[in-house]
């Protein structure tokens, strides 16, 4: 299926920013679909989101790297500036965001308009979640893990182990 499609050599660069604390299968689905459309996808791990973090930036980057290694046109980096500034520095044509329920919409709409205000040369592109992942969030994955509930079918290999190690060290 789409996994076997050749990488698009269209010269288009997409930035997919987020906290990824930690990365889960909903994110992976968006990355896979973006990597089908764009020549190069940068998964950009935000260094200091306005939320309490469970994993350090280095850990979040490592977990994303381990999960996307199969896609040759996907790169993982961290950044600490405004997303739109980082997108410009990296020559991105579009900023990708995933949309779940309508509750994501208001904030994403505001963010997209502000980003366009700051740089109208970078397009905001929204990929609708796949139904199978619509209920998935990093917050819920962490909560399940803390209570020892099974999460292996919700996160890429490596993330379950990362969560287990964190839990045991806490
Ligand atoms: P942020 O703190 O920027 O929202 P997240 O790591 O929570 O970072 O999410 C990164 C991006 O992935 C956001 O665009 C978010 O809407 C999207 N996303 C999160 N969960 C899902 C999911 N289950 N399906 C599709 N997209 C998702």
How does this structure look, described?
The chain has 170 residues and is α/β, with parallel strands linked by helices. Helices cover 39% and strands 18% of the residues. The chain contains six helices and five strands, in the order E-H-E-H-E-H-E-H-E-H-H. It has helices at 25-37, 57-68, 83-89, 105-118, 138-146, 159-169; strands at residues 13-18, 40-46, 74-79, 94-99, 123-128. A five-stranded parallel beta sheet has the order 3-2-1-4-5, with helices on both faces. The longest helix has 14 residues, at 105-118. It is globular and about 45 Å long. The model has no long low-confidence stretch (mean pLDDT 93). It binds adenosine-5'-diphosphate. Residues 18-20, 26-27, 30, 49, 97-98, 100, 104, 129, 133, 136-138 line the site of adenosine-5'-diphosphate.
Short structural summary:
With 170 residues, the chain is α/β, with parallel strands linked by helices.
Average pLDDT figure: 93
Please work out how many helical segments DSSP would assign: 6
User: Strand order within the widest sheet?
Assistant: 3-2-1-4-5
N-to-C SSE series? EHEHEHEHEHH
Report the principal-axis shape: globular
Percent of residues in beta strands: 15-25%
The main β sheet shows up as:
5 strands, parallel
Helix content: 25-40%
Question: CA-to-CA gap between the ends?
Answer: 41 Å
Q: Give a list of the ligands.
A: adenosine-5'-diphosphate
Structural class: alpha/beta
Nearest-angstrom radius of gyration? 16 Å
Uncertain segments are none
Assembly form of the protein: single chain
Please report the total strand number as a whole number: 5
């Amino acid at each position: 299926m789409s996994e076997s499609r050749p990488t698009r050599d269209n010269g288009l660069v997409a930035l997919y920013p987020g906290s990824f604390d930690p990365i889960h299968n909903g994110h992976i689905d968006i990355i896979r679909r973006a990597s089908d459309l764009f020549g190069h996808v940068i998964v950009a791990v935000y260094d200091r989101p306005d939320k309490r973090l469970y994993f350090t930036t280095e850990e979040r980057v490592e977990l994303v790297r381990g999960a996307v290694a199969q896609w040759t046109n996907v790169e993982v980096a961290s950044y600490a500036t405004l997303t739109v500034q980082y997108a410009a520095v990296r020559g991105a044509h579009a900023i990708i965001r995933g949309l779940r329920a309508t509750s994501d919409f208001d904030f994403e709409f505001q963010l997209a308009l502000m980003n366009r205000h700051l740089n109208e040369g970078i397009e905001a592109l929204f990929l609708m979640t796949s139904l199978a992942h619509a209920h998935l969030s990093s917050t819920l994955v962490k909560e399940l893990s803390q209570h020892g509930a099974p999460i292996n079918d919700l996160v890429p290999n490596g993330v379950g182990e990362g969560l287990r190690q964190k839990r045991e060290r806490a």
